[in-house]
Amino acid sequence: MAGGALEHWVQKNVVNPVARLGVRFGLAPRHFALLETTGRKSGRRRQTPVGGARLGSAFWIVAVHGRDCAYVKNLTAEPAVRVKVRRTWHAGRAVVVPDDDALARHHQIVAANGWVGRADSVFFRATATTLVSVRVDLD
């Protein structure tokens, strides 16, 4: 497998399932959340673990692969989403914010999450390709 394909496989088959379970059972670090989107092709609900933070009345995510992320493609097609932060689900509408400074937003998310977010920042920098900010306006 090429580097990018291997990274994608590890993320999809190792990291995401473990993170998803951690968030579902309230065991994941506080900067992890579940983003539930509707599959743009299947119409099925998809739950993806994401790193982010609630900043004011919105939940912010920086997608490390930009508009190429499956969840970004899904929320672009159907912006009605849910976000599970800690043990609570929140309904909202997601929007890609291309004019937002995604790196500055990432630093804001890290600051909101404290040291745990800083530890994740190393992984973030290692895997990021094309950053884009996603804002979920919570109901």
Number of strands: 6
- Overall mean pLDDT: 83
Q: What's the CATH topology name?
A: Pnp Oxidase, Chain A
The CATH superfamily name is: Electron Transport, Fmn-binding Protein, Chain A
Number of domains: 1
Largest sheet: 6 strands, antiparallel, barrel
Order of strands, widest sheet: 1-2-3-6-5-4
Helix/strand order, N-terminal first: HEEEHEEHHE
Low-confidence stretches: none
Shape descriptor = globular
Instruction: Identify the CATH architecture.
Output: Roll
Discrete helix count: 4
Helical content band? 25-40%
Describe the protein's architecture and organization.
With 139 residues, this protein is α+β, with helices and mostly antiparallel strands. The protein has a single domain (3-138), classed as Roll (Pnp Oxidase, Chain A), CATH 2.30.110. The chain contains four helices and six strands; from the N terminus they run αβββαββααβ. The chain has helices spanning 3-24, 70-77, 102-113, 115-127, and strands at residues 32-38, 45-55, 58-63, 80-85, 88-97, 132-138. It has a six-stranded antiparallel beta barrel with strand order 1-2-3-6-5-4. Helix 3 (102-113) packs antiparallel against helix 4. The protein is globular, with a radius of gyration of 14 Å. It starts with a helix and ends with a strand. The model has no long low-confidence stretch (mean pLDDT 83).
